[in-house]
Design a protein that fits this description.
Blueprint (H helix, E strand, L loop, with lengths): L1 H27 L9 E8 L3 H14 L3 E8 L1 H9 L5 E4 L5 H8 L6 E15 L6 E2 L1 H8 L9 E4 L5 H10 L9 E3 L3 H10 L3 E6 L1 H4 L6 H4 L2 E3 L1 E5 L6 E4 L3 H6 L5 E8 L6 H10 L1 H10 L2 E2 L14
Parallel strand pairs: 1-2, 1-3, 5-10, 6-7, 6-8
Antiparallel strand pairs: 3-12, 4-8, 4-9, 4-12, 4-13, 10-11
Length: 308
């Protein structure tokens, strides 16, 4: 009887092993990509790295089967990756040019462009510096290769950065002058440089000041944000503005740019879901708290209690 009992148990052992192997294989299978599941490599302009990190972290915490790998690069590197088809989704502070878009038109890929925030370029100096304002014309003159009595040195985060590309375009030039303009590696290095060097003006994305990582905070505390000139188109009067949310919203601060999710997947995928989330109510609340300007100001519900 004992022998028969053992033989009778063998089929159940095989059945158990079958389902165990099946479940194990299911766990090892990659999650199918949808708008809320799967994996995505997201290249990000590193001048807006902090806000993107915040949105990605919250998005992944809500959607457990979504994994977004954020890779922070310069604007030039991000655009080159898109044009080489190395990536399909990116966060940039500009849209692609007509010439760049031609690459995707040849492939019949229609982009999905989502504007989700407005950023500002901040001009910072060491706290020991007496000046608290700067004329924008002075900055543009230096970028045009002209001498300046007000500016000794302009320091950018990277020679391929979106900040330098933006200001070169504003100055009407295509190349960086050989004098008085310097570039480092990233925004962190600019902040640390200004912390140690009075007399230089650092140029960074304002996101790095309002959302600086803890390791950088002591350096941020030792820099001062300059108010930049802007001329009233009606009165002709010149006033100076800092890159606050309110000044970005009114357009008084002169150095602002839009932030986009550029999706060239050519189909609905995780890039679509991320873009929808960051432009919807919850995503816009994250942008609002970051110090940047959301595209739509999230409403606040106020509960009024009747005590009568």
């Amino acid at each position: 009887m004992k022998k028969i009992h053992i033989l009778a148990s063998i089929p159940f052992v095989f059945i158990g092993l079958f389902f165990a192997c099946k479940n194990n294989n299911a766990e090892n299978e990659p999650v199918k990509e949808t708008s809320l599941t799967g994996t995505l490599t997201l290249y990000v302009d590193n001048t807006v790295q902090p806000i993107t990190e915040d949105v990605v972290a919250v998005f992944e915490s809500i959607y457990n089967n979504a994994t977004i790998t954020q890779v922070n690069k310069t604007e030039t590197e991000v655009v080159n990756a898109l044009l080489s088809d190395s990536i399909k989704v990116a966060v940039l502070t500009r849209k692609l040019t007509t010439e760049e878009e031609a690459h995707f038109k040849q492939k019949n890929i229609s982009p999905k462009i989502t504007h989700f925030a407005t950023d500002a370029i901040a001009l910072i100096v060491n706290k020991r510096t007496n000046d608290s304002i700067i004329n924008l014309e002075e900055v543009l003159n230096v970028l045009q290769g002209k001498a300046s009595d007000k500016i000794d040195k302009l320091v950018f985060d990277n020679q391929n950065s979106s900040t330098i590309n933006y200001l070169l375009k504003k100055a009407g030039v295509t190349s960086v002058p050989t004098q008085n303009v310097y570039s480092l590696q990233n925004n962190e290095e600019v902040i640390k440089y200004i912390d140690k060097n009075a007399g230089a003006i650092g140029i960074i994305g304002v996101d790095w000041l309002v959302q600086s990582p803890p390791s950088l905070q002591k350096y941020v505390n030792n820099v001062k944000v300059l108010a930049v000139s802007n001329t009233d188109t009606i009165t002709g009067n010149k006033k100076y503005y800092k890159p606050s949310q309110s000044n970005i919203a009114t357009g008084d601060y002169p150095l602002t740019r839009s932030v986009y999710v550029l999706n060239y997947q050519g189909r609905d995928g995780l890039g679509t879901g991320f873009a929808i989330y960051v432009s919807a109510h919850e995503g816009q609340r994250i942008v609002l708290k970051s110090g940047l300007l959301p595209v739509e100001i999230p409403s606040r519900d106020i509960i009024v209690r009747n005590e009568l």
